[in-house]
Amino acid sequence: MKELIKKTEVIILQGMDYRETSRIITAFSEGFGRIKLIAKGVRNPKSRMAAALQSFVNAEIVFYKKETSEIYLVKEAEMVEFFWDIHNNLLRFNYAAVIADFLSNLVATEQVSKILYRYSLFTLHRINQGKKEDLPFILTQFLMKSASIIGFRVELEKCTACGRKGFSPHYFSNPKGGILCEKCRKSDLHAVEMSKSVYHFMKKGWEHEEAGYYQKMRTEDFREVFLLFSNWFNYHTHRTLKTLDNYIKGKPFDIYYRTIESKE
Ligand SMILES: [Zn+2]
After folding, report:
1. What H or E segment, with its residue span, contains residue 146?
2. pLDDT tens column, 155-212
3. DSSP state of 194
4. How far is the CA of 183 from the centre of ligand 1 (A)?
C-alpha cells in the first residue's frame, strides 16, 4: 500500500464524531482540494489537535495520503487562525456556513484550486470582521466569483442569445448561462425577469462597495439574488445549497438580520 506524508493548509468545513474518540473531518485544502480526514483520538481531552480541527478554523495539517483510501489519516494539526466572531455570532456563522456548504457540495472532490482556496479564506476573514450590513454583499461577491472559478460564470454583459448590450428588461436564463433580452426571452420559457436593482447590483454593484447600487439593495433584493444563485447552481451542478435556501425561506438568518436592521 503506497502511503505518502503530505502537508497542506486547510479550512475545516465540518466534522462528525466517529467511534469512541475520533472524528471524521471534511476540509478544503490549498494543495489537494476538498479532502476527508480521520483524526484519531481527537476527542480525548489531552488531544493537541482538537482546537485546530474545529469547523471554520484555518489550520496547517500533516496527513498520510493513501492511494487506496478515500479518507486520510491526520498526523499533525496546528491552528493558523480561529475566526472568533464567526464562532460567537449566529449571523456571521450562518453566512460562513454558506461558504462551507459551497465548498462541501459544489466543488468536486480533490479538485485543486488555489485561487478558490485563497478567495474562500479571504471571504471568511471578511465575514468574521466586516460590518454586519455588508454580509449579504460579501456573500454575493463570493458566489459570483466562485461560480466563475468552478466554471459556471454568469453572463450579465450581453444577451446570451443575440449578443446585444445595453437593453432592459433583463431575463435570466440558467440553460443559456445568463441574461436574455426581450426579443430572445422566448428561447427559454423558464427565463425569469430580474428586478432592475438586482440586475444593476449583480452587474456592477458587487464589484465595489461604494457603488450606489449596493446601498439601494433591500433584504428582499438579496433574497432575489440568492434565489437566482440557488437555481443557477442547482441547474448546472444538480446540487442544492441548503444554507442558501434557508436564507431565501427566511430562516434562520434573515430573521436575525431583520432584528439587527431594526436595532440600528
Ligand atoms: Zn437577445
Report:
1. helix 135-149
2. 999 999 999 999 999 999 999 999 999 999 999 999 999 999 899 889 876 666 655 5
3. P
4. 6
CA 33 to ligand 1 center in whole angstroms: 38
96 shares a domain with 14 = no
Question: Is the omega angle on the peptide bond into residue 175 within 30 degrees of 0, that is, cis?
Answer: no
Could you tell me the CATH number of the domain that includes residue 49? 2.40.50.140
Q: How far is the CA of 171 from the centre of ligand 1 (A)?
A: 10
Residues 201-244: tens digit of each pLDDT? 898 766 666 555 666 788 888 999 999 999 999 999 999 999 99
Helix pair 114-129, 90-105: axis angle to 10 deg: 170
Conformation bin of residue 51: beta by default, left when phi > 0, alpha when psi is -120 to 50: alpha
C-alpha torsion 28→29→33→39, nearest 10 = -70
Asked whether 106 and 241 are in contact (CB, 8 A), the reply is yes
Give me the domain span that covers residue 257: 85-263
User: d(Cα 181, Cα 161) in Å, to the nearest integer?
Assistant: 8
Residues 182 and 56 in one domain: no
